[in-house]
């Protein structure tokens, strides 16, 4: 109840939450909110932030104030490679306003965002009208007229359009943040269909229509997306492309600032995106269209053929700018990671972001703590380079490792065992530029080389984390902006990363402790009965004679002992507030001492001792009443089992008391009901009562004494904390 929205999708492994030693986490949407805020735009001539939004708006207004022909010639000067053969180019000075305008226009067009307009009027009109959902006003002043460069909207339609708010829908929060920013500075996406888009210049209410000719969606393999549009005013065909700087730097024309500026933004924790364009002639586009149509008709290796055709355009493109988008950290993520570190859990971050961005987020979120040494493994290509980097890292004791997915893949191909044995001891590991397949591979390798007593947990929020979540011992999905793919594929689903501490420290601890107690007590219950049966048979020369009637055996494992034993699932050794306040308590669970060969052997010895004490005690004290051996031993057996449950309980619950009382009451009622099997007069005699009590005390009192001595002279750490909290 204290974890809102939590869902348990696998009820067979809750105890595994109490033995987590490694936590593999995605970054975007897991450690961060996946709520993007546009922070910076760099266009080569200068950098623009949200603080100087007014300056960008003025530059945008200034450029669009030019006549259409002048603006078209200015755009031509930015793309000399796209000029038709034999056409003379007019030399025009490239102004700052032109650079900014072209970049903003590219950002407003190159995406998969759909605008959703909310109408503020109850008037009804034909929704099939072209401008039904393409207009909204960001100005508070009354609108008098709206003109398009190629279309005049009827006044009757304009009277009906009184939208006051617009929202955007897209699969990527980055794209929504960018399109929302272009709206704020003055260029708004007001309409989108499968074949067209419409932009509106807020300052003049002008509408600019673009025909969508081709759309190339983003994929994790290509790490970029593109679009080809036709400006319906100038008939100009433009190819826009945006993507990660690592792939775009080989596509754009030579420049001296892309890599440096991308690194600067990444060091600030911003997600970078490079935008480029290319002007296409009508002939060149028609040639491309024929090739792409032919490739899409292929039945074998269609994706490869399509990719090859698209790559013919992805060369020598004009670099427009670089955007920086901030992904805010989740609520209480720093405190959560600090608690997880203190609990002894080693945290790995597997992300597809740049090395600088991933490192910055790891530091700001305290995944890598201030005093931790950091070793950034260089890019390697040969076996010798791998060995050299690995030896350097081995000499850095307790250093956090930052490595790219490519370098990790190469090192694993040569020195898998040495690398894994080295990095599993690292307090934190950051793997950047990591693909979904690599995430699953890392998880499998960690399971292979880990300490077998601890478990590997993976947590993520997107479809690219599903393989990692399913490969781990315990998968936790976060319901976030990217949908419920990870949540549905995981064993446990939560809404925030900060809920992880309560899930592990409280529910994980309680589930593990309760499972250990319950399973071992069930073993003790069965073994205790078996020892008594063995001793009874040995007295009669190992004759196969049952000591108890069948109905008593069934009653023993059901109504006489079931409620007290299963009430152990309500037991807890540490209060919830103490478990959260002292994460160090979780370290003890990873050692597996609650359920091990040692504890199993101890319960076997207890069962043998108590079974022997009951049987031989009955033989000695009731030698004259041996005919009543069933009543004697079974009564002592029930009392012993109930007292052992009471001995095991660390925190009493009202249902535990009720379970003990009901079980003993059921046994008394069975004596009354089945009088043919019991001698009531004998059971009511004082001789029977004191002898049964004596046998029960002999079987249980030594264990109570040993527990008391242990608690006084060597109490567990959680007992010390409980006493300290009580005194405080």
TrEMBL record:
Major subcellular location class: membrane
Record's keyword annotation contains Translocase: yes
Q: Which residue ranges run through the membrane? A: 522-542, 548-570, 600-620, 626-647, 654-676, 688-706
Q: Where is this region: Disordered?
A: 127-146
The root-end lineage is: Eukaryota, Metazoa, Spiralia, Gnathifera, Rotifera
Tell me which UniProt keywords the record has, alphabetically.
ATP-binding, Lipid transport, Magnesium, Membrane, Metal-binding, Nucleotide-binding, Translocase, Transmembrane, Transmembrane helix, Transport
Q: What is this protein called?
A: Phospholipid-transporting ATPase
The molecular function terms of the Gene Ontology recorded here are: ATP binding; ATP hydrolysis activity; ATPase-coupled intramembrane lipid transporter activity; magnesium ion binding
Q: Which InterPro entries match?
A: ATPase_P-typ_cyto_dom_N (IPR023299), ATPase_P-typ_P_site (IPR018303), ATPase_P-typ_TM_dom_sf (IPR023298), HAD-like_sf (IPR036412), HAD_sf (IPR023214), P-type_ATPase_IV (IPR006539), P_typ_ATPase (IPR001757), P_typ_ATPase_c (IPR032630)
The entry's ATP-binding residues are 26-28, 175, 218, 242, 271, 351-353, 433, 439, 464-465
């Amino acid at each position: 109840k204290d974890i809102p929205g939590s869902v348990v999708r696998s009820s067979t492994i809750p105890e595994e939450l109490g033995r987590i030693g490694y936590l593999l986490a995605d970054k975007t949407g897991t450690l961060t909110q996946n709520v993007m805020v546009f922070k910076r735009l760099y266009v080569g001539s200068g950098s623009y932030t949200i603080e100087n939004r007014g300056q960008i708006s003025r530059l945008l207004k200034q450029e669009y104030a030019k006549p259409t022909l002048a603006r078209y010639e200015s755009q031509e000067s930015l793309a000399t490679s796209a000029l038709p053969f034999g056409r003379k180019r007019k030399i025009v000075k490239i102004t700052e306003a032109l650079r900014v305008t072209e970049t903003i226009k590219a950002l407003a067009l190159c995406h998969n965002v759909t605008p959703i307009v909310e109408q503020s009027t109850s008037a009804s009109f034909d929704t099939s009208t072209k401008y039904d959902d393409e207009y909204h006003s960001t100005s508070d002043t009354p609108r008098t007229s709206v003109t398009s460069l190629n279309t005049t909207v009827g006044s009757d339609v304009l009277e009906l359009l009184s939208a006051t708010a617009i929202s955007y829908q897209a699969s990527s929060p980055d794209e929504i943040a960018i399109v929302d920013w272009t709206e704020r500075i003055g260029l708004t996406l007001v309409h989108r269909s499968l074949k067209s888009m419409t932009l509106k210049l807020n300052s003049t209410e002008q509408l600019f229509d673009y025909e969508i000719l081709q759309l190339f969606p983003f994929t994790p393999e290509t790490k970029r997306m593109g679009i080809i549009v036709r400006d319906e005013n100038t008939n100009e065909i433009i190819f826009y492309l945006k993507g990660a700087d690592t792939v775009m730097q080989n596509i754009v024309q030579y420049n001296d600032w892309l890599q440096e500026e991308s690194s600067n933004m990444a060091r600030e924790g911003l997600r970078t995106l490079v935008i480029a364009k290319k002007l296409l002639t009508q002939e060149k586009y028609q040639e491309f269209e024929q090739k792409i149509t032919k490739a899409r008709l292929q039945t074998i290796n269609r994706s490869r053929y399509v990719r090859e055709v698209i790559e013919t355009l992805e060369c020598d493109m004009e670099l427009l700018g670089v955007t920086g988008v901030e992904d805010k950290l989740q609520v209480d993520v720093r405190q959560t990671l600090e608690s997880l570190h203190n609990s002894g859990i080693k945290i790995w971050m597997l992300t597809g972001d740049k090395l600088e961005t991933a490192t910055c987020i790891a530091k700001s979120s305290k995944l890598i703590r201030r005093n931790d040494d950091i070793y950034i493994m260089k890019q390697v290509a040969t076996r010798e380079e791998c060995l050299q980097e690995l030896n350097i890292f081995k000499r850095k004791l307790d250093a956090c490792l930052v490595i790219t997915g490519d370098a990790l893949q190469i090192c694993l191909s040569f020195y898998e065992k040495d690398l894994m044995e080295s990095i599993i001891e690292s307090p934190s590991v950051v793997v950047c530029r990591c693909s979904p397949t690599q995430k699953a591979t890392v998880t499998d390798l960690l399971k292979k080389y880990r300490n077998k007593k601890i478990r590997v947990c993976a947590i993520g929020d997107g479809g690219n984390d599903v393989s990692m979540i399913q490969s781990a011992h315990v998968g936790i999905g976060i319901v976030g902006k990217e949908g419920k793919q990870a949540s549905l594929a995981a064993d446990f689903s939560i809404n925030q990363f900060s809920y992880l501490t309560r899930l592990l420290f409280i529910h994980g601890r309680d589930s593990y402790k309760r499972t250990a107690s319950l399973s071992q007590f069930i073993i003790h219950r069965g073994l205790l009965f078996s020892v008594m049966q063995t001793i009874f048979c040995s007295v009669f020369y190992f004759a196969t004679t049952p000591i108890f009637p069948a109905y008593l055996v069934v009653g023993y494992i059901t109504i006489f002992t079931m409620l007290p034993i299963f009430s152990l699932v309500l037991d807890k050794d540490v209060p919830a507030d103490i478990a959260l306040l002292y994460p160090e308590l979780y370290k003890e669970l990873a050692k597996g001492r609650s359920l091990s060969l040692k504890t199993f052997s101890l319960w076997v010895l207890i069962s043998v001792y108590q079974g022997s004490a009951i049987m031989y005690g009955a033989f000695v004290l009731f030698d004259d009443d041996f005919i009543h051996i069933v009543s004697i031993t079974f009564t002592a057996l029930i009392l012993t089992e109930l007292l052992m449950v009471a001995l095991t309980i660390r925190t009493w619950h009202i249902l535990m008391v009720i379970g003990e009382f009901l079980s003993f009451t059921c046994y008394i009622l069975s004596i009354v009901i089945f009088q043919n099997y019991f001698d009531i007069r004998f059971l009511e005699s004082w001789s029977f009562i004191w002898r049964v009590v004596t046998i029960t005390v002999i079987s249980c009192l030594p264990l109570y004494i040993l527990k008391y001595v242990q608690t006084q002279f060597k109490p567990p750490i959680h007992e010390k904390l409980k006493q300290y909290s009580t005194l405080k």
